[in-house]
Amino acid sequence: MRQFELVETVQSYDPTADVDLIDRAYVFALRAHRGQKRASGEPYVTHPQAVAEILTEMRLDDATISAALLHDVVEDTPATVAEISELFGDEIADLVDGLTKIKQLDLVTKKAEQAENFRKLLLAFSSDIRVLLVKLADRLHNMRTLGIMREEKRRRIAEETLDIYAPLAGRMGMQGMRDELEALSFQYAEPEAHEAIVARLDDLQTRNAGLIEEVKAELEERLRTDGIVPVVSGREKRPYAIWRKMEDKHLDFEQLSDMYAFRVVVRSVADCYRILGLVHTTWPAVPGRFKDYISVPKQNDYQSLHTTVIGPRNQRVELQIRTERMNEIAEYGVAAHTLYKERTARDQDARRPALEQSNAYAWLRRHAEAMLSRENSAEDVFEHTRLELFHDQVFCFTPKGRIIALPRGATAIDFAYAVHTDVGNRCVGCKINRRPAPATTVLQNGQEVEIICSDKADPPAAWEQIAVTGRARSAIRRGVKENRKRQYGELGRHILTNAFAKIDEAFSDEKIASALHRLTQKSVDDVVVAVARGELAAAVVVRAVFPSSDLPAEPKPPRRARNRLEGAGAVADDGWFNLRNFFGLKFRVPGSAGGARTQDPTGLLESATVPIRGVANLPVSFAEGGAVPGDRIVGIVTPGVGISVFPIHSPLLELYESEPERWMDVTWDMDASPERFPSRLNVTALNEPGSLARIASLIGEEDANIDNLMMLRREADFTEMQIDLEVWDLGHLNTVMRGLRAIPVVHRVARVFATVERTKPSSP
Ligand code: MN
């Protein structure tokens, strides 16, 4: 586009545009890029010119057009931001600076950098939405001229466009931009699929020649009524949209219905509904396809009525009914907001708010803010922003009729957090359309959701994996962390209370406070949490508080103390606390006192009936070798990990014998095993073709899962292997073992609790 054409175009939609500014930017770009060529051999400056032209189609302001002309000069020529600022002012310099910074980001490099780059991108975009608009136009022009690049580069850029830029354009409501970016990327990213679909579409077009025109004419004819003159346009669905649908729903091309979409544009909202009435009384509507995005706009401000009918010539046609203004927003999204409001305002401060009023932009800003908060890692934000970019929305209502928009797949948990963080934290269940439902229920469009709250504010840790929105997930993580800290605090105080009681002292926070320097801890809370986590022995704390007490000198616990009764001077006689109320777990600290219990811990284990999963908020994991319901188990508090569950036969437990304060008695408490649990077998079998297959298939037939299989030893005649498998419970494991032993080639089957069976430590 020549200089005067560009200026005239801008003036045609904005008579107040600063012509001199655009002229100077045009000339500056021309000079700066002089002598540079694009890969195609064309002068480089044709690129910024084309980008500016694309932006005039969205009728953007003089500053955006000028920034588009200058968008590559800092990166690719000796020009500097300071120079731009001096010649064109800070506003344009800021835009160019933002564009230069994001140009250096290459999103599809290493995974770790990708997240960080995406974060920088969103931050740049959120500081001024016009940076995003220029970047999208820049990407669109590069995609249009991508053919000249090497195939690998084409594919990479196309994938990046499909991953980031097309969804961003869609999220900003810029459907026209999105469609073209997708269409161009599709042919480079998936050349075979693209070719196949285009060929099918050609074929369809030949078979249905003239169909679109006929349907359009009939629609226009039958919908013209009472002075409404609808403007109808029709088209086939786009190849990329078809491909996505085939992929998402696992359909063949032939299985796709409604290949045609028609748009009916009328003058007023009232006309939209009158046309809708007419459509539904003229042709049968396809159930479940009607959507009213006029009364409930999409998050990106999109408004329209959607319906599908068995229309003219018995074709399933999708109809979009909307006003001209809605059509404009559907096409240009955020950019459309510059068109009407503040058109005559000269100063940018008045103009920018119009843009920033859009919901789509508000969304972008929210995500940028989320990224700035320390709670969220870049990876996390990247993942969730992308999830929300790709997912369509569902709209649900509070009982008072407030609309809450959520990404598709969101649960009532996400809904609760979208209402308010406090509502989310206190959520214990919900009612969907007035009927009780679990909070984990995935919500559907239009449902009324009432969140049921309790007084306690401690979201279950498992929710973090279930929630879909970044907002809910980061709030849950924060809540769980605080909760865990509180629980560790209570646990630590109980352990210390008993340790103090051992030397007839009463525990108090003040006593701990007096010994902080000796313990090199910052606060009392740090001390009790460290004790609960097993990072600090209770005995050490007691000695720090009472240096002169006649406790035995601190034994440096041997790695494998033979007798766990030694070195455990500071624990309660009976070693039992019932912390069930706040903990969900009974646990014990095996005491120095002898007695039947300590010598026969199994007797105790049976007396405690508590679930080890679900209720306990401390993270529970299984020690190497696993444990299954029916096993007698013991828990070990591991610093920074939580509770590891060991079968009491595990030889690994010897490692903790010198640290009694870390021991915790736990048992299973479940009627029927809700899931499979890990266990490990050593199997020795004849080295014969097919033996492994027989072993594996027996395990499968018995409804167990093989998690891992490792060859330990392979000799001429026998192979010894270690199989990690998941079984429902001990009975099930025994059944599997019996089944394995019945296989003729199987020589030996034994359950093991560690990779290499450890021998019992011998007496010194
Ligand atoms: Mn460029």
How is this structure best described in words?
47% of the residues lie in helices and 15% in strands. By secondary structure, the protein is an alpha+beta fold. It has a five-stranded mixed beta sheet. β6 and β7 form a beta hairpin. The longest helix has 33 residues. The protein is globular, with a radius of gyration of 34 Å. The termini are far apart. 40% of the residues are buried. The C terminus is likely disordered. The chain binds manganese (II) ion. Manganese (II) ion (MN) binds next to loops.
Mind sketching the topology for me?
Layout: H1 3-13, H2 19-32, H3 46-57, H4 62-69, H5 73-76, H6 81-88, H7 90-103, H8 111-127, H9 129-144, H10 151-171, H11 175-189, H12 191-207, H13 211-223, E1 231-236, H14 239-249, E2 260-266, H15 269-282, E3 291-292, E4 305-310, E5 316-323, H16 324-332, H17 337-340, H18 348-356, H19 359-372, H20 378-390, E6 393-397, E7 403-407, H21 412-419, H22 421-426, E8 427-432, E9 435-437, E10 449-453, H23 463-466, H24 470-502, H25 509-514, H26 516-519, H27 524-532, H28 538-545, E11 576-578, H29 580-583, E12 586-588, H30 596-599, H31 601-607, E13 620-622, E14 633-638, E15 642-647, E16 663-665, E17 677-686, H32 691-701, E18 705-714, E19 718-727, H33 730-741, E20 746-751
Parallel strand pairs: 2-5, 13-15
Antiparallel strand pairs: 1-2, 3-4, 4-5, 6-7, 8-9, 8-10, 11-12, 14-15, 14-16, 17-19, 17-20, 18-19
Bound molecules: manganese (II) ion.
